[in-house]
Design goal:
This protein is mainly β and 236 residues long. The protein contains 3 helices and 14 strands. The N and C termini lie far apart (37 Å).
Length: 236
């Protein structure tokens, strides 16, 4: 009940603030909310919210509202525009009430490079899952082979009416210091064409294959810092 009330409070705040920003189509951000547990989320005008976790190495040019000295990049999307109910369910992962609301200005250009914020590193488990279109992908386990390659496995589940055949995901791997090591794009789910039993269907939970990644130093990745983002989906 407590978590449900937290979720309702966040969404209520979002709905109250959204009309004031609806006219500005160039900026999808409504506000940044800092939670008492230190995590920060961004409310978007399309009824989604995202964790803020990255501090860029280069400053960004902004217009309009003032912002703190460094811009932030947001990658982890936890809700989609087609289901406010799904957004409420995912917001229940936040364990502390809202502390304050800040105005936000989006950088005029892409942010290059960067490192995880201290808050993101403290709440790294929140970044090990991602959801989109009713499908959720979560980090399951890691392993190392004799060649020094990092193997990653993920768990997938779906509450969507769609039958997914391909789910493409971007993986960001970060050193224990918070610095970005590398990014990899994988088909975290790949069904067999015209073999329906291989599709990811509603109510199913499936494990991915093992994805082997080169160029990661095991000594620098003991904290298993990563970010996940679903970037494309195909269904039948």
């Amino acid at each position: 009940m407590y978590k449900a009330l937290q979720s309702c409070a966040i969404m209520a705040l979002f709905l109250l603030m959204a009309p004031a920003f609806a006219a500005d189509k160039a900026d999808d951000a409504v506000a940044l909310i800092t939670l008492e547990n230190g995590a920060t989320v961004r409310l978007n005008a399309d009824f989604t919210w995202e964790y803020v976790f990255l501090t860029p190495q280069t400053s960004a040019t902004t217009e309009g509202l003032a912002i703190e000295s460094q811009e932030t990049e947001i990658v982890q999307t936890q809700a989609n525009t087609q289901s406010n109910t799904q957004a409420l369910t995912q917001a229940e992962q936040i364990s502390q009430p809202v502390a304050k609301v800040q105005p936000v200005v989006i950088a005029s250009g892409p942010v290059v490079g960067g490192a995880m914020t201290a808050s993101a590193m403290d709440h790294a488990n929140l970044l090990r899952s991602t959801a989109k279109g009713g499908a959720k992908v979560s980090y399951l386990k890691s392993q190392w082979d004799s060649k020094g390659r990092l193997g990653l496995n993920f768990e997938l589940s779906s509450n969507s009416e769609e039958n997914y055949v391909i789910i493409e995901m971007e993986i960001g791997l970060y050193a224990d210091s918070g610095e970005l090591i590398k990014t990899e794009t994988v088909n975290v789910w790949q069904a067999i064409f015209r073999v329906p039993e291989t599709y990811l269907r509603k109510g199913q939970t499936r494990d991915s294959e093992t994805f082997w990644i080169e160029g990661v130093d095991k000594a620098r990745w003991s904290k298993e810092l990563m970010t996940l983002k679903i970037i494309d989906m195909s269904s039948r």
